[in-house]
Amino acid sequence: MIVERTQLVLSSGFTFDYTNLYGHGLVTQADVTAIGERLMAAHQAMEHMRSTGEIRGHLSKDGAPEKVLFSQLPYVQSGHLNSPASIARLKEFGQSLRNKVDAVVSFGIGGSYLGNKVLFDVHCGEFWNSKGAEERQGYPRLYFSGNNIDPRRTMELIAQIKYEARLRAMHAGPHDGVYRVMLVVISKSGSTLDTMSTFMAVYDALHRETPAIEVQVVAVTDLAVGAGETLLHKLAAEQGWPMFSVPDGVGGRFSIFSEVGLVTAACIGFDIDAFLAGARAMDEACRQEDIWRNPAMLNAALKYLAAEKYGQDIEVFMPYADNLKSVAEWYVQLLAESLGKRTDRAGREVFYGRTPIVAVGTTDMHAQTQQHQDGRKDKVVQFVKVAAWENDPVIPDVFPSADKLSEISGLRLSQALDAAREANAAALRSDGRFNATFVLPEMTAYHLGELLYLLALSVAYEGELADVDAFDQPGVEAYKRLLGPMLKQHSP
Questions:
Q1: Other C-beta atoms within 10 Å of 19: how many?
Q2: What's the half-sphere exposure (Cβ side, CA atoms, 13 Å) at 244?
Q3: Whole-angstrom Cα distance, residue 473 to residue 318?
Q4: How far apart are CA 113 and CA 344, in angstroms?
Q5: Which one, 103, 146, 419, 426, has the greatest CB density within 10 A?
Q6: Cis peptide leading into 15, omega within 30 of 0?
């Protein structure tokens, strides 16, 4: 089957290839035309959000009007949430850790974990903590906790840090054998059960190891003037801990572009400027009124139509790169919390929402693809391709007598990876199954910023098309109301 490619290519080379999402047997031009007025209204709502922070009908969990400010974050300006002074302070903080702090433990859950894990995975990779300080350019090891209340993993993390401290003492001689650990605790309220319970357990256990382990703490919390001190803000002030901001108007799932995510970026030497520049370039591209030139509006419209008209209400987010798996995990929260809504803005029960699923190519071609290809026709598979890899070895012909193995020798690993993705996409298309591909020219901070911002703005557009509030999360509040009494029932 010969299919003419349909794609939107930005000047950076970032590409949204929607060939297998739009056309005969898929979402059609007539479908897009039919919602033309709603698309223009959605676009005007995005422009209004950018200029005023206002989203129609959006209220905080307390029922008060609340601004939506995530679209401001890529623009580093005085008076903005990200200002030249705040970015400079983040960079100074990162530099202060080099060759002075041995390990950082980041405590957070939801957007305070998932976005930070994306930055770590893309920049550091799986084996960062096994590298020597010189290979890490003096930046500390980094661990995550607080993203689950898991007794075993918490104790194993404590044991790992104690082990590293013993190694330091053994090799430092009689002088400075102190192992320096910084705990970064991220919570807007300071009462987040998952984060604070594990933070206190680790804080206490490491303090008991004084003087072999020196513990420092940095708090990332609500610093809003006039809002009253949050629990964590008050605690940090009492203890003299440095603080960074969880800004008002930025939900956790959008906070990767704020100090919540950028504090992790600073700890590992991730390029903050390039990351925000990529997000800014994507935002500027998405100010186009023409849907065929606006990646976020186009992505939102095609997937909204695929779900509402064709029943494709599951999105499998499938990057072909191990280090991008956490992007898929971040996207699960973004899509689920933003669009999984019981009621529309008029209060009518609509039970809207597309279900996100994490997959990784080629891994899940051997696990999920059977269901994607032969199961219910209710999915859009969204691939992510990296066009050029920094290191890309050739498959050697080490067993020339094995014909099947010799056939693949001479290919670069990326060529084999891309052939697998193309085969997957073509097989799905041949059976009328919807899929699309985002292409990153390289796996860099800039292109990561483009991708994540595109996804964030896409859910804002889709919220307008579905007439639901993409920025609240009332379903999350339901279990929280029950949690307090249940904790009291379990108290000793």
A1: 17
A2: 29
A3: 25
A4: 29
A5: 146
A6: no
Q: How far apart are CA 284 and CA 269, in angstroms?
A: 26
Write down the residue that tokens 């987010």 correspond to.
317
Per the listing, tokens 């090799």 go with 171
The SS3 call for residue 357 is: strand
What single-letter amino acid sits at 323?
N
Reply yes or no on whether 407 is catalytic: no
* Catalytic residue flag (residue 284): no
Helix-helix angle 272-285:445-466, to 10 degrees: 40
> CA 44, CA 61: separation in Å to the nearest integer?
25
Helices (H), 367-473: 369-374, 403-408, 413-430, 445-466
- Decide if 417 contacts 320 (C-beta within 8 A): yes
> What backbone phi and psi angles, to 5 degrees, belong to 179?
-100, 120
Q: Virtual CA dihedral for 195, 197, 200, 203, nearest 10 degrees?
A: -60
Rounded (to 5) percent helix, strand, coil in the chain = 50, 15, 35
H or E stretch covering 299: helix 295-310
Residue that has been written with the tokens 């595109």 in this structure: 454
Secondary structure letter of residue 473 according to DSSP: -
370's tokens = 């059977």
Confirm whether 209 is a catalytic residue.
no
Catalytic hit among 366, 404, 488, 490: 366
Residue that is written with structure tokens 């990296």 in the block: 386
Which among 100, 234, 309, 480 is annotated as catalytic?
Answer: 480
318: left (phi over 0), alpha (psi -120 to 50) or beta: beta
Catalytic residue among 315, 337, 450, 464: 337
